[in-house]
Design goal:
mainly alpha; coiled coil
């Protein structure tokens, strides 16, 4: 970096003025001065190189900081996107929960209405069954009364000839004279008292009417 002894740059601010002229010159003095200058230049070069390395290190640190900033910004954006995504999912979940709640409420109301309807239908069926049972009882009572009435009528019709013969026997035993004065057509035309005896008595009619009722 030196340009010879005749032209050495004053990089260190050395005073080469009158004081330098007063120094006793020796044969080795210029060589030592040149060596010192070279040493200083070497040190300056090393310092310059170190400064360059420091600058490179600073630039590398700045680059790393920039990358770290970019990564942080990317992470922040990713985090914001995730938060936004999670918020949307939470909103959708809330909507789903609300819909499910509404559906459950509607289902509960439908079940309650169905239970009430089944209860009303069951009550109606029970009433219908009660009416049917009552009608069956009434019908059974009517059938029983009709059967008893028919049985009584059959029994009365069965006993009626015996009753008539008994009544005639009693009347004949108490009043035999009219029978002696009869003409030949007595069997063809019944007498008045025979006609009266052939009619059922009031007691028999009352019994028949009571049986029919």
């Amino acid at each position: 970096m030196s340009k010879g002894l005749g032209h050495v740059p004053n990089r260190l601010g050395l005073n080469y003025g009158s004081k330098a002229s007063k120094v006793k010159k020796s044969p080795s003095s210029p060589i030592k001065m040149q060596d010192k200058i070279k040493e200083l230049e070497r040190r300056l070069e090393e310092q310059y190189n170190q400064n360059g390395k420091i600058q490179d290190t600073i630039k590398d640190l700045e680059r790393r900081l920039e990358e770290q900033y970019d990564r942080n910004e990317t992470i922040q954006k990713t985090r914001d996107q995730k938060f936004e995504y999670y918020n949307r999912q939470i909103e959708k979940l809330d909507e789903s929960v609300q819909k499910l709640t509404d559906w459950a409420s509607q289902l509960k109301n439908c079940i309650a209405e169905d239970i009430q309807r089944q209860y009303r239908e069951r009550e109606a069926q029970n009433k219908i069954q009660d009416v049917q049972h009552a009608m069956q009882k009434i019908l059974a009572t009517i059938m029983e009364q009709q059967h008893k009435h028919i049985s009584d009528m059959i029994e009365f019709q069965t006993q009626l000839p015996d009753m008539i013969r008994g009544e005639l026997s009693i009347q004949q035993a108490s009043n035999p004279e009219p029978l002696l004065d009869r003409d030949l057509d007595v069997d063809t035309k019944p007498t008045q008292w025979e006609q009266d005896d052939a009619k059922p008595s009031r007691k028999t009619k009352t019994r028949t009417k009571a049986t029919m009722e």
